[in-house]
């Protein structure tokens, strides 16, 4: 009874809120600054943004996606390379949640706000292994960024989950195949802009636009046809947030780190950051 009362009080205090995160693998802040698709520019014009968010070293996918959803750096959560597996790692997590893993934002919300409906659609198959088993009811790998977004939009129309995370991989593929900042790379980024338009249209049609926070971010950038280098072009990422109360056209001048993303999502839902996290909510954009 006490747990139900707390849930009802939290819902009354914060109202109905939705958070949609679109994570674009390989979308470097520097490259986006060189040429910004109209749809992404519109997100910046109507929300708060920085193209100088900081990922973590090494600038490869698993450590950075893990840091984003775990609110901490690799030396704490232990995901230090793309070879990491739940039963195969070099550094043990400094802190463990109920699942015996370093706690993610999904695990925290599952524990603190069990009534929240969460869904993850991921283009890169290995993304799913970063999340504690059983905490996200809909955890689906769909190959191809367009197909991934289509599946996420279809589910949004059906269920309107409280937290939806969409991982898209096509930009990273373009970077590896043709090089970051090439014409082919830019075309891939433009295609992501079109997918964002489709997603925003679905959110608007569902009648939830006024209660939905939309965050566009990434794991890393790249140099040449690879990443993993200790350079700003590899390290810096975009962090663009739209939503109720978020100041429009506001360039964020405070440092934003990918580890701040988990804490920001939790804060939107009225949940305190996990004690093991070192990231902080981006207070400059939350009112």
Short description:
By secondary structure, the chain is α/β, with parallel strands linked by helices. Helices cover 38% and strands 16% of the residues.
Q: If you had to describe this structure to a student in words, what would you say it looks like?
A:
With 287 residues, this protein is of the alpha/beta class. The chain has a single domain (17-285), classed as Alkaline Phosphatase, subunit A (3-Layer(aba) Sandwich), CATH 3.40.720. It is built from eleven helices and eight strands. Strands 4-3-5-1-6-7-2-8 form an eight-stranded mixed β-sheet. Helix 7 packs parallel to helix 9 and helix 8 (170-178) runs antiparallel to helix 9 (183-205). The longest helix has 23 residues, at 183-205. The protein is globular, with a radius of gyration of 18 Å. It starts with a helix and ends in a 19-residue tail after the last helix. Residues 1-13 have low confidence and may be disordered.
Features:
287 residues, alpha/beta, globular, Alkaline Phosphatase, subunit A, 11 helices
């Amino acid at each position: 009874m006490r747990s139900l009362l707390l849930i009802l009080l939290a819902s009354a205090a914060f109202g109905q809120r939705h958070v949609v995160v679109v994570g674009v693998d390989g979308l470097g802040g520097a490259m986006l600054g060189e040429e910004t698709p109209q749809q992404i520019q519109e997100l910046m014009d109507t929300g708060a943004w920085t193209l100088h968010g900081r990922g973590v070293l090494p600038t490869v996918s698993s450590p950075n996606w893990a840091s984003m959803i775990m609110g901490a750096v690799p030396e704490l959560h232990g995901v230090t390379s793309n070879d990491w597996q739940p039963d195969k790692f070099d550094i043990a997590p400094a802190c463990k949640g109920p699942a015996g893993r370093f706690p993610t934002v999904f695990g925290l919300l599952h524990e603190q706000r069990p009534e929240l409906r969460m869904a993850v659609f991921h283009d890169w198959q290995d993304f799913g292994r970063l999340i504690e088993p059983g905490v996200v009811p809909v955890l689906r790998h769909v190959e191809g960024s367009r197909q991934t977004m289509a599946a996420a939009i279809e589910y949004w129309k059906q269920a309107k989950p409280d937290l939806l995370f969409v991982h898209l991989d096509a930009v990273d593929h373009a970077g590896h195949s043709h090089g970051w900042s090439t014409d082919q790379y830019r075309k891939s980024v433009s295609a992501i802009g079109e997918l964002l338009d489709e997603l925003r249209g679905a959110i608007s049609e569902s009648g939830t636009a006024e209660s939905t926070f939309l965050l566009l971010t990434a794991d890393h950038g790249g140099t040449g046809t690879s990443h993993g280098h200790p350079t700003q072009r590899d390290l810096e990422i975009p962090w663009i947030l739209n939503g109720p109360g978020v100041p429009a056209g506001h360039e964020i001048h405070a440092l934003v780190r990918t580890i701040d993303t988990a804490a920001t999502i939790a804060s939107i839902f009225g949940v305190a950051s996990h004690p093991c996290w070192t990231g902080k909510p981006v207070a400059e954009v939350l009112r």
